[in-house]
Amino acid sequence: MKPFNTITTLDEFTIQQTRLFPKATGGLSGILRDIGIACKLINKKVNKAGLVGILGARGTENVQGEEQMKLDVYADDIMIRVLKSSADCAGIASEENDDFVAFDDEYSKNAKYVVLFDPLDGSSNIDVNASIGTIFAIYRRESELGTAVQESDFLQNGSKLMAAGYVIYGSSTMMVYGTKGGVNGFTLDPSIGEFCLSHPDMMVPEDGKIYSVNQGNTEKYTDGLKNYLQHCMRNDDTKKSYTHRYIGSMVADMHRTLIKGGIFFYPADSANENGKLRLQYECNPMSFLVEHAGGLSSDGEKSVLKIEPTELHQRVPIFIGSKNMVTELLSYL
Ligand code: P6P
Question: Per-residue pLDDT tens for 186-210?
Answer without folding.
Answer: 999 999 999 999 999 999 999 999 9
